[in-house]
Every structure is written in structure tokens, then in C-alpha cells.
Amino acid sequence: MPKGMASVTTTFSLMLHFLFLTLCWFNQPALAFTRQEYREALEKSILFFEGQRSGKLPSNQRLTWRGDSALSDGSSYHVDLVGGYYDAGDNVKFGLPMAFTTTLLAWSVIEFGSSMQEQIENARAAIRWSTDYLLKAATSTPDTLYVQVGDPNMDHKCWERPEDMDTPRNVYKVSAQNPGSDVAAETAAALAASSIVFKDSDPTYSSKLLQAAIKVFNFADRYRGSYSDSLSSAVCPFYCSYSGYHDELLWGASWIHKASGISSYIEYIRSNGHILGADDDGYSFSWDDKRPGTKVLLSKEFLEKNSEEFLLYKAHADNYICSLMSGTPGFQAQYTRGGLLYKGSESNLQYVTSTSFLVLTYAKYLNSNGGVVSCGSSTVTRQSLLTLARTQVDYILGNNPRKMSYMVGFGERYPMHIHHRGSSLPSIHAHSQLVSCNDGFQYLHSGSPNPNLLVGAIVGGPDSTDNFSDDRNNYQQSEPATYINAPFVGALAYFCDQPSTI
């Protein structure tokens, strides 16, 4: 084919794809959800975290079908590791996704807390439940970070309530001898971001979080290595650090700079940025890969101060946005016929919620500083970013081909057979007798709806053809996770404060 003909064909193909996605997006009703409905979804998205709590539950616990659990975590290792969150539908406390969840909850409050209204205290409580645990994990022993409680291989052989757990509660740590820069730097980011959240409401606690963040980051940077290499089968294949640890070091330093204003962290970013991935494009923002989030976060430095050394981060943030926008030279995302961003078959909605949050955050930065997104010779408007994010949020809430909400307890139709032990087994308050490891499998394989509603939980979501199997055994689609919900909190908060059409 002649070179010129190939170029015309490519351009025509992009135009057709853009037209298709435009039809998917704009054929949806303009008034899919009201601000009141977004506020309801926000309340439930935060409430979900109460269902994931480990430890001694407080008197104001609202999901009352849960009970106390794992009250001896860490005791055999002479350390207090009670508290924190179970990551998903199992009973293990994984440090890397828990820290990422915390960072994204904190970032949600930092950017959109003013729109949360009466939910701001619940959002802070959700963050604090995690930071109280991360503080203990980070400060109990010098040059050590406790990064996991529970043997995942043994845990996954059982189907039992967290209140009944009798599987080994092994404790895993990273240290100078067995480094884990990825999980440590993410923990530093979580503590630093959370210190911003509590700066006005609890300055003493905020200061404690920031000091711990600095300590943990120094440990992560001094003893470099991936926790996957140090802990192997304890964390792999569950939460392997596939992207390595460079992205977390740059991410952690960026958050400490934002929280503290200490100039040495800007110097660190200047000196180490190129080594740690400043030059790399990343197109999936997740508990594993922080590159797009870091670029968006640091782009604010350029937009606010017009600092040329941060232009690089703005350019890469633009590349990330361009990858999502059909019709641009950098477009590479995949969307379902119903308009949903599709990244993978396992827990796809984690990418949808994180992308929606990043797009809205970047739109906010651009709007505050008069910036635009550059995609080659063309530009993408802020309006296009808002439309993309709203389409994804509304799809999750029920504006999709199946007319099904993927948030439990929201809307008229939502998943009833989610892959979640505590939700699928009778509550300990209704059935106080022990349900042993193997006895619980009858509930996993039951065709009955879950007896306990894990309100606000967002499941893994539909496949590439917009189909969804409401089946407990299909964990890829039916399992919720804290890191799916965390960025959605911020995205929902944004729309709580916006007119019905944007």
C-alpha cells in the first residue's frame, strides 16, 4: 500500500473509532444521575470500608453484621498489628494495596473533600482506620516495615468469616537485609498524603504521620529492592510488584514534598527523576504502577509555577490523557461497545475508577491554571475530560447496556452473589457457632444471594463485551476490593457538586 494511502486509512480509522465512542458516550441520557444520587453513591462507597475492617470494631460501626476479628495479629512476633483492612474478599492484610488504597482515599479528600459535605468525617475515619495500622507497621521496629499479616496460600484454601479465622496469621516484613522499596515508598506516600488530610482537624496526628512518612521513605530509598524478591510466594502471585520499585520511590518523594514543602524532596526528584521513570509513559494507574499518578501530581508544579523542569511531567500527563481519547495520535485505550474503559479481564473496574479520578484531578489542575492537554498538533478540552470521567462513573452506577449497578446496594439492580467471605457467610451475630475452613465452602457454592449486604462495594465488573456473571465463583468479575473503591470516592465527590450536565 502506498505510504500516503496508509496515512489516510489510519486517519479515517481513527475518525471512525472516535465517532463510535462518541455515539456510545453521547447517546446516554444527559440526566443519568442527579447530584442527590451521586451523594448517595458517595456515602455508600465510603461505608464499604467498614465492611473491610480488621481488628476491634468501634461502637459507631454501621455495617453491624461484621464483628471483631484478628485481635492477636502480630502478637506471636511481639508487635501490635491489630487493625487495618482486608484487601478484598479474603482475610489477608496485604500492605501494598492497603497503602495505595490509603493514598488514593487521602488524595480524594485533598482534591474533592470540599464537595463531600456531611461525608467528610466518614472519609477521614476510613483513612484513619488504615493510617493507625500503617503507623504501627512502620514504627514498631527500626529499619523494618511490616507489610502483611496472614498466609495467603493457606487463607485461600478456606472459606470462612474473618471473625472465625483459624488459618496461620504469619507476619511478613521487609528490612535492610530483605528490602521492599516498593511497598515502603507506597506506605510513605500513604502517610504523607494522609498528613495533609489531618493537618487542620488534628495537627498533632498529622505531624506524626509526616514524620513516619519521612522515616519510611528514607528506609525505602536507602535499602533498595523489590519486596517481591524478598518475600516471593508470600506476595506473589497475589500482589507482585510487576512494575518494580522505581515508580514508588518517585511517587513517595512527590507526596512528601507536597505534604512538607521540604526542598530536599524537590532536589531528590530533580536528581533521581530520570532514573526512577520520569521519562517513561505509563498508561495504567493501579496499586502496582504509579507512573501516571505521579505525572499528574507533579504536573501541578509546572502549571502553578511554570517551572520548566516540571514540563516533562506535564508532557507525560498529557500523553496519558491522549491515550484515552479516541481520535488523538496517542490513542491506545480499548472501550467496550457500551463505552466502558477496558484494561483486563480481572478486576477491570479498578482501572476505570483510578482513571476517572486521575482525569478529574488533571481537569481540575488545568482549569485552575489555564492549561490544556496537548495531543500532537491538537488539544483536548477540559470538557472532554469531564465527559469521559462522567461516562465511566455513570456506567458503574448503572447507565450501561445491562442497566445494572456494579456498586452493591446502589440502584434497583446490583450484584447479589459477590466473591466475599464475610458477606457470603451468615453473620456471626445471626450464627454464632464456628463455621470451619471447609464447612464454609457450601456458602461459596450456594446459589442463594449473599446474606449480608456489603453496601458500597464495587465489584470487578463486566467483560470486554459488557457481560457480567453474578457468580461468587467468578472472582475476576464479582470480587470487590478496597483499591477499586478508593479513587471512586474522589470521582463521586466531584460530581456531587456539579450540575446535571457538564
What descriptors fit this protein?
two-stranded antiparallel sheet; 502 residues; Glycosyltransferase; 3-stranded antiparallel β-sheet; globular; 4% strand; mainly alpha; 5 strands
Quick one: CATH class?
A: Mainly Alpha
In the sheet with the most strands, the strands line up as 1-2-3
Using only CA atoms, what is the Rg?
A: 22 Å
**Count of beta strands:** 5
Structural domain count: 1
- The residue fraction in helices comes out at 40-55%
The total of helices stands at 18
Cα separation of the termini: 43 Å
Specify the overall morphology.
globular
Tell me the strand percentage band. Answer: under 5%
* Secondary-structure content class: mainly alpha
Order of helices and strands: HHEHHEHEHHHHHHHHEEHHHHH
Poorly predicted sequence stretches spanning 5 or more consecutive residues: 1-30
Average of per-residue pLDDT values: 92
